[in-house]
C-alpha cells in the first residue's frame, strides 16, 4: 500500500510540474513566442541604426541584435540569420566609422554581437572584432585616470564604474568571448566583476538602487542585473568559486521581484511604487530572468511559471500594430527625485524595450 501511495504521489507531482512547465509553452495564437519574436526580429532588420549623437552604434541596438540572433538560432530561421549578417556586413567597409571606440563599457559591449555571429558562421572576422572589444575592457590605456588604474590594479576592468547597467554590458561580451575561445580568463573576469557589484550595490531586500545616492528602485536599471546574473550563471562552471555568491544574489533578487509583480503581470517604473505606471523594458527583463531560472531548475516552476505566464500575456498587449513595444522608458540618468522617474517620457519602438522582448521570446522557445 505504501509503495502504491508513493507511486501515485510521484505521478501527481510529475503531472503538476508538467502543468506548471506548460505555462512556459502554451500561449494563445498571436501571442506565442515564435510569432512575437518573428514580428520583432524582422522589424529590427528593417530599422535604421540607433546611434550615440549620430556617431556610433548605440548599446540598445546591440542588445536588440543579440536578441534577434538568439531568436533566429532557436527557430533555425536561415533567412533571418542571413539578413542579420547582411545588416552587419557594412561595418567592415562603408559603415566602419560607426563602430564604437573601445574606451567605455557601453561601447565595448558591441563586441558581443560580433562574437555571437562568429558562433553561428565561423567567419573569423567576427571573432577578431569581438575579441578586440572583450580584451580592451582589461587593457589599461596609457592615458588612464587614477581611478581606472586603481581598478585595474585590483584585477577588475578599468571601465568599472559601479553602475548596475555594467552587469550586462561587461558580462555579455566577456561571456561570449569565453564561449568562443574556451579561455577561462573571460568567464573569471565576468564573475569577479559580478561579485564586486553585488557586494557594493545589492540592498538587503535583493533589489538595487539606481545609484548609491539615489534610493529608488528603477525597473530597467535593476533589469540589467536581473538579466546579467542568469546569463552568467548558465555558463559559469559548477565548481567556480564565485558561483555561490552570484547564485545567492540572483535568488534573493528573484524572490523580491516576485513579491513586487503587479496584479496585471507588469512591474512599475519604480519597482516598489504600485501607483507608478507599468514599464515594459523592466518587465521584460525580469520575466526573462524568471524564464531562465525555471528552465535551469534554480527557481520553483510552481511558483514562478504562473508569474511568467501573467507577465508575457501583459507584455504582448503592449506591442502595437507597427510591431513597436510601447510604454518604454527613455534613457534615464540618475536623479534623487521620485517625481523625475514618474514623469520620464515613454517611447514606442525604443530598442531598450524591443531587445528584452526578443530575449524573452527566444528563451521561451526552450533551452
TrEMBL record:
Source species of the chain: Chitinophaga silvisoli
SUPFAM superfamilies for the chain: Six-hairpin glycosidases (SSF48208)
Signal peptide positions (record): 1-19
Pfam families, per the entry: Glyco_hydro_88
BP term (GO), one: carbohydrate metabolic process
Residues reported to bind substrate: 165
Keywords: Hydrolase, Signal
Top-rank taxon, per record: Bacteria
GO molecular function, a single term: hydrolase activity
Descriptive protein name: Glycosyl hydrolase
Keyword Oxidoreductase: no
Amino acid at each position: 500500500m505504501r509503495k502504491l501511495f508513493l507511486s501515485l504521489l510521484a505521478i501527481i507531482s510529475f503531472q503538476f510540474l508538467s502543468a506548471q512547465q506548460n505555462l512556459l509553452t502554451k500561449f494563445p495564437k498571436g501571442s506565442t513566442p515564435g510569432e512575437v519574436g518573428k514580428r520583432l526580429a524582422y522589424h529590427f532588420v528593417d530599422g535604421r541604426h540607433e546611434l550615440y549623437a549620430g556617431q556610433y552604434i548605440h548599446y540598445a541596438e546591440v542588445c536588440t541584435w543579440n536578441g534577434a540572433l538568439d531568436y533566429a538560432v532557436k527557430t533555425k530561421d536561415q533567412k533571418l540569420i542571413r539578413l542579420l549578417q547582411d545588416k552587419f556586413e557594412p561595418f567592415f567597409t562603408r559603415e566602419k566609422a560607426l563602430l564604437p571606440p573601445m574606451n567605455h563599457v557601453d561601447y565595448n559591449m558591441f563586441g558581443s554581437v560580433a562574437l555571437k555571429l562568429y558562433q553561428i558562421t565561423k567567419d573569423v572576422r567576427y571573432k577578431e572584432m569581438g575579441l578586440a572589444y572583450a580584451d580592451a575592457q582589461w587593457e589599461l590605456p596609457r592615458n588612464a585616470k587614477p581611478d581606472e588604474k586603481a581598478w585595474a590594479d585590483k584585477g577588475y576592468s578599468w571601465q568599472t564604474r559601479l553602475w548596475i547597467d555594467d552587469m550586462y554590458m561587461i558580462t555579455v561580451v566577456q561571456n561570449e568571448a569565453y564561449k568562443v575561445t574556451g579561455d577561462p580568463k573571460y568567464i573569471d573576469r565576468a564573475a569577479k566583476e559580478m561579485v564586486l557589484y553585488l557586494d557594493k550595490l545589492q540592498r538587503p531586500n535583493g533589489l538595487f538602487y539606481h545609484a548609491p545616492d539615489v534610493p529608488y528602485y528603477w525597473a530597467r536599471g535593476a533589469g540589467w542585473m536581473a538579466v546579467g546574473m542568469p546569463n552568467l550563471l548558465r555558463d559559469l562552471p559548477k565548481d567556480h568559486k564565485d558561483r555561490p555568491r552570484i547564485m545567492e544574489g540572483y535568488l534573493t533578487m528573484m524572490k523580491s521581484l516576485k513579491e513586487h509583480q503587479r496584479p496585471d503581470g507588469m512591474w512599475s517604473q519604480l519597482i516598489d511604487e504600485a501607483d507608478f505606471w507599468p514599464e515594459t523594458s523592466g518587465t521584460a527583463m525580469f520575466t526573462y530572468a524568471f524564464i531562465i531560472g525555471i528552465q535551469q531548475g534554480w527557481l520553483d516552476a510552481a511558483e514562478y511559471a504562473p508569474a511568467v505566464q501573467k507577465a508575457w500575456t501583459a507584455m504582448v498587449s503592449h506591442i502595437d500594430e507597427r510591431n513597436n513595444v510601447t510604454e518604454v522608458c527613455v534613457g534615464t540618468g540618475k536623479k534623487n527625485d521620485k517625481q523625475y522617474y514618474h514623469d520620464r517620457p515613454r517611447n514606442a519602438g525604443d530598442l531598450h524595450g524591443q531587445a528584452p522582448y526578443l530575449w524573452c521570446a527566444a528563451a521561451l522557445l526552450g533551452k
